Amino acid sequence: MAKKLSNNDPESLEAAFVRWVSEKRQNRLTILITGKTGVGKSRLVNALVGERVAKEGRSKSACTDTVTSYRAEINGVDVVVWDSPGLQDGTCNERLYLQDMESKLSQGFDVMIYCISMTDTRFYEADKSAIRTLTKEFGSKLWKNGVVALTFANLKTKDPDEEDDLAYYLGERYFWEKAIDEFLANLNVDLLVRQQIPIVPTGNYKQLRLHECENWLSDLWIKCFNVMSISSGLAFFKINESRLKYPDSSPATTSTAAAARSSEDDENQMPMPEDENQSAYNPDHEDIPREIPLNQKQEDGLLSRLWKAFSDVYKAAKNVGHRALRFFTRRGKSNVN
Ligand SMILES: Nc1nc2c(ncn2[C@@H]2O[C@H](COP(=O)(O)OP(=O)(O)OP(=O)(O)O)[C@@H](O)[C@H]2O)c(=O)[nH]1
Ligand SMILES: [Mg+2]
User: Fold this and answer.
1) Which of 210, 208, 206 is nearest to 284 (CA)?
2) Coil, strand or helix: which one is 269?
3) Which residue ranges does the record annotate as region Disordered (predicted)?
4) pLDDT in tens, 206-219
5) What is the CATH number of the domain that holds 85?
6) Which of 45, 50, 87, 268 is the most exposed place for a label (fewest CB within 10 A)?
7) Does the C-beta of 58 come closer than 6 Å to ligand 1?
8) Of 42, 169, 263, which is best to mutate to test ligand 1, by the most ligand atoms within 8 angstroms of its C-beta?
9) 86 lines ligand 1 (CB under 6 A)
10) What total of structural domains would you count in the chain?
11) Among residues of the chain, what percentage have pLDDT more than 70?
C-alpha cells in the first residue's frame, strides 16, 4: 500500500499521483466513429484528438466492405481511429462488413461515437438499421462507452420562422434525444445505460458556442472522457494535455469567458451560411481549435473522477479534496507524463 499522505506533504501526494497515472494509463486509445457518410465524422475525431488524423471531406469510395483505420502517435499515445460509414449506406455486404469490424475491434475500443446530423429532418432508417445492427452485434455494452454526436448543430441555431431561436434549437435537440432513447429502448438497451449516454450537439470549428453551451468541443471532450474507463481516460487526457485550459489559470491561458468572447467575434466576422454549397466558405480550411477551455464545473468533474479512482488505491489520500489534483494536472506536461 502507498505511503502515508497528508495535507502537509504535497510533494508525496504529487509523487504518488504521478506514479499512479503512469501505472494506470494505457498507451493506446481506440476510437470507433460511425454515422452516415458526410455527417462530419472525420472532422469531429480530428477536433477531439487535436490533429488531422482522419481525412476530411468526401471519401472517394463511400462504400467498401472494410472499416477504415487511421493511426497516429500523439504525445506518446498510439491513437487508432476506426471509421465506419459503410453500415449506414446500405450498399455494402453487411455480413462481410461486420466480420471485418469484429476482427478489427477484437481488442475492443475505448469510446464509440455515433454521429447523426442535426440537419436530418427524420431519424432515417439508414441510422436505425445501423444502430440496430451494431447493438445486436456488440450487445448493449456498446452504449456503456457510447456517445451520440449531433453534428451540424450550428446550422440549427436560427429559427426558420424567425420566432424564437432558443426554443427552436432546444426543440430540435429534444426531438433527437427522445427519438434515440425510444429507439434504444425498443432494442432492449437498459434504462440505466440509456440514461448515461451523452447526446452532444456539435458544430464547426469557427462557432464553438452553441445556444446551451459555451464550447461544444469542451462539452464533447468531457463527455467522451466520462464514458471511458480511467485507463483510457488518462490516455485521452495525455493526448490533449496542452490544449486543456482551466478557468482563472495563468493569464497566458485562455479562460472560458475569453474563449466564449472569441467565438462571439468569430460569429460576427463569419456568419455561417445556411447552405454551404452555395457559398465560397470552405470549412475544410479551418484550423482545428488549439484550445479546449474547461469551465469550473467541467474541471471539477474531471478532477473528481480522477480523484475517486486515485484515492480508491491510495486510501490515505482520501482526506485531501479532489481540487488538490488541480496543481498537478494544470502544470501539464512536465508532471503528469
Ligand atoms: N458547418 C459544419 N460543417 C461541418 C460539420 N461537420 C463537418 N463539416 C464539414 O462537412 C464536410 C464533411 O465532413 P467530414 O468530417 O469529412 O465527414 P465524414 O462523415 O467523415 O465523411 P465521409 O468520410 O465521407 O463519410 C467537411 O467539409 C466538413 O468540414 C459541422 O458540424 N458544421
Ligand atoms: Mg470521413
Assistant:
1) 206
2) helix
3) 247-289
4) 889 999 899 999 99
5) 3.40.50.300
6) 268
7) yes
8) 42
9) no
10) 1
11) 79
